[in-house]
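pipeline stage [seq->struct] | target=Type II toxin-antitoxin system PemK/MazF family toxin | organism=Candidatus Methylumidiphilus alinenensis | residues=137
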Amino acid sequence: MPTPWWPSPEAGEIAWCHFPQDQLPEPGPKPRPALVVKVFDDHAPRFYVLVAYGTSQKANQLRSGEFLISNLEMAAYRLAGLSYPTKFSFHNVVELPFNDQWFKPPPHAPFGQTPKLGVLHPSLMRRVQAAWEAAQP
């Protein structure tokens, strides 16, 4: 069940997520940024979200289906709420319940005690769309 005081998630938000590792059906040990791609509200106030994996590892090595938010793009980087240049992969997406088992407030909590780190800047939309399309079968 979602933590009741969190606002409903929205597509385009970047959330602090215990993204599952190795396709295991359990929260990963380390929270990381995840891009909310889609929100399922069929069971509101219980929400499910489709999230894309985010990592700061090998951020300079982009593959098809990935996009980068770099600290060289100051406005986009700040709005995203990231601490490091981060790439997101649409080849690694998963549907998760939006609850405190999978999500938690980030250490610096820019939006208060919610999992939201930030949002995508409008200048990134073409890049995000191209990565999404490249990842589709």
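stage status: PASS
auto-comment: The first helix runs from residue 74 to 80. The chain has two helices and six strands.
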